[in-house]
Structure formats: structure tokens, C-alpha cells
């Protein structure tokens, strides 16, 4: 069921996502100037997610665990992530590890829209940031759901690794270019520091010597007595 306001909020969220998110090889990690957008995105996604949570909670709970096939029963993974795995199978430090949104972006090259706009939106739980409460809440996602989403976006986990390599080599190439430019600039600076200052060019009125006939050009010529200038001319 659609609530009033959905229509207005979702495109705004979408617009925010599209800002500075042009290509996957450039995704993951944010510069300082993205903080404002990140902040606005956070607020927008939180209210959006609250609405989503109601939808998640309305999904009927399956009877069985998808891993062992036994009765699902009380399941933290179901309650928090709609992931039908029982408490016995729940492998908190391994297969069902929780990963922060920031780490997931880097690890799986996901963009904000891949978390929130692709259907179904990925469910998360919020935790206070242990390093600094001022950073805002950490969003924790479930590893197998992230992997499934990443495969949906990139085709396979292998292609993510290829993209990452491309990203690294592109960054290396950029650094190399920057380094070469710097070296070149330094060399130019050194050269001009060592080179004798070019004498300022003084223009003057040429003072011509005697007229001569130049057989080579079949013209007459006159040399300036004060500089290297030679003037050639025909005579009728
Ligand atoms: Zn189980
Ligand atoms: Zn001259």
C-alpha cells in the first residue's frame, strides 16, 4: 500500500544518488565535498527505510530454515533481515557476518542506489558507531544478501575483482602521469635556473654597409654594420 508522500520522497532520493555516481569503477569511498550529500542521503534513506521495515515485517515467515531444513523457529536473521536461517545455522563470524555499508561499497563496488532503490531494498540494522558517535549510525548489512546483490549488479563476484584491478591500474597510471608531470616541471625549473638569461632583444634602425651583388640569389644585398641583418633586393 502506498502512503502519501512516497511520490515526493522517492524521486528526491534517486536524484541524490545520481549526483557524483557516474560509474562503478569510481564508486566506493567519498571525498569531503560528498559529506553534504552523504548526510542528506542518510536522512532520506533512513525515513525511506522506516517505511520499508513495515513492508519487511509484513512478509510471512517461512516454516523451515533454508540451510538445515529444520523448523525455523526464533530466528534473529529472519527478524532482522528476512533471511530464513535458523539460530543453529547462524554463522555470525563467517557466512552470516554483518558488514557496514561503507565496507560493502568498497568490497562489492555497490552504489547507494544498489542498496536502496533496487528491488527489494537491502535490509540493514543501525548500530552506534563505536569509533565516534558523531559519525552517525553504522548501517549493517548481511553478507549473503550483499553477495547476492553484487552478483545481480556485476554479473559475478569475479567481475567485481576485475573491476577493482582496473580501478587500481587506472589509479596507478594516473599517479604515474602526475609524477612524470612533476618531474618535468622540476627539470624545466632547473634548466631555466641554470640557463644564462637571454639578452633582451633591442630593436634598432639598421645601418647598412656598401651594396653588394649576391650571385647565389641573383639579388643585391646590404649588410647591417651593427647586427647580422641582411636585406636583399632587386634592381630594375
Ligand atoms: Zn538451520
Ligand atoms: Zn642592424
What this model shows, in words?
- The chain is mostly helical and 236 residues long.
- Among the domains are: 6-58 and 97-163, Nucleotide Excision Repair Protein XPA (XPA-MBD), B Chain A; 207-236, no CATH class.
- It is 44% helix and 11% strand.
- It contains seven helices and six strands.
- The protein has helices at residues 6-18, 35-57, 76-81, 101-108, 112-116, 143-154, 157-194; strands at 98-100, 125-128, 137-142, 212-214, 219-223, 230-233.
- The strands form two sheets. It has a three-stranded antiparallel beta sheet with strand order 1-3-2. Strands 4-5-6 form a three-stranded antiparallel beta sheet, with no helix packed on it.
- A hairpin with a 6-residue loop joins β5 (219-223) and β6.
- α1 packs across α2.
- It is rod-shaped.
- The protein starts with 5 loop residues before the first helix and ends with a strand.
- 15% of the residues are buried.
- Mean pLDDT is 82; it is low at 1-8.
- One zinc ion (ZN) binds next to loops.
- This is XPA_C domain-containing protein.
- GO terms for molecular function: damaged DNA binding; zinc ion binding.
- It holds the Pfam family XPA_C.
- It is found in: Nucleus.
